[in-house]
Amino acid sequence: MSFELRGVSVRYSPALPRLALSDVTLSIAQSEQVALIGPSGAGKTTLLHTLAFARSIDSGSLRALDAEPWGLSSSGRHALRTRIFLAPQTPPLPPRQRVITAVLAGRLPQWSLFKAVASLFKPADPQAAYDALARFDLQDKLYARVDRLSGGERQRCSLARLLVSNAQALLVDEPLSALDPALAQQTLDVLQQEASARKATLVCSLHQVELARAHFPRIVGLRGGRVVFDAPREAVSDQMIAALYQQAGREPQVAVGEEPGIGAGRSFASGCF
User: Strands 59-64, 3-13: parallel, antiparallel or unpaired by DSSP?
Assistant: First the structure.
């Protein structure tokens, strides 16, 4: 089992009693591919950060990769994090960094400090970075500066990091938000092919409901921090989708990627992004 949540609740921040996740119970098997859908502020980002134990839980229990992360020592938790890749919607890419360096940062959990520092001056594996970028048609940007990339290019550059990592669980937040339909399709295909090839678990939040229904065998619908449905895609009807979004107006709304207090919990190791 990759992830198992039992009755998990997470507050927006220690100072706010309102819950970002409320009594969530969810199990995700190794190598499963799951789409998270729901309106803005539904809790999708918080759920991904909770699975990656970037957010501490206020109640309930979490198991990740057959371990209880919040029962481990700090060093044990860090070791477990190296097996998870969390790709945020807004990638944390230093603007003056070269793309090759940004991509190879996906290898940081595997490298010693000496190798990581040395790679800043002479990239340790330029071919791996080139190959990862090529899968997103960005190979010509290998030595470009990050601040010269468009928003969509930065998003795909961040996902190229995922390709050079050796993570067993891939948690991806809105990877298609800055992409046109053709690039969105290509990017989703690459992510799913990579997950299948390495038998990794893929959990992906999406606003593009039709892409979720067309590509993911399992869909979890969230609203107001709760699981509204968790079903195989063939069981997810138009009526279920309409109800998920039509009733969203009754819930507090928060911009995607800007859920209050997203950084208020325990911090996630930067080398795991």
Answer: antiparallel
Beta partners for 24?
Answer: 8
Q: What average pLDDT does this structure show over 121-135?
A: 92
- In angstroms, rounded to a whole number, what is the distance separating the alpha carbons of residues 139 and 130? 5
CA torsion sign for 164, 1, 189, 270 is negative
Claim: this prediction has a pTM higher than 0.85: yes
Instruction: Name the residue type at position 263.
Output: G
273 burial class (0-12, 13-18, 19+ CB within 10 angstroms)?
A: buried
Q: How far, in Å, CA of 210 to CA of 247, rounded?
A: 19
Please provide the DSSP assignment of the chain as one string: --EEEEEEEEEEETTEEEEEEEEEEEEE-TT-EEEEE-STTSSHHHHHHHHTTSS--SEEEEEETTB-GGGS-HHHHHHHHTTEEEE-SS----TTSBHHHHHHGGGGGGS-HHHHHHHHHS-S-HHHHHHHHHTTT-GGGTTSBGGGS-HHHHHHHHHHHHHHS--SEEEEE-TTTT--HHHHHHHHHHHHHHHHHTT-EEEEE-S-HHHHHHH-SEEEEEETTEEEEEEEGGG--HHHHHHHHHGGGGS----TT--TTTTTSPPPPGGG-
- Residue 246's contacts (CB-CB under 8 Å, 6 or more residues apart) are none
Q: Alpha-carbon Rg of the chain, whole angstroms?
A: 18
Question: What is the per-residue pLDDT across 130-167, written as a single tens digit (0 to 9) for each?
Answer: 999 999 999 999 999 999 999 999 999 999 999 999 99
For the chain, the maximum distance between any two Cα atoms, rounded to a whole number of angstroms, is: 55
Assess whether pLDDT exceeds 90 at residue 259. Answer: no
Domains of the chain: 1-83+207-260 (3.40.50.300)
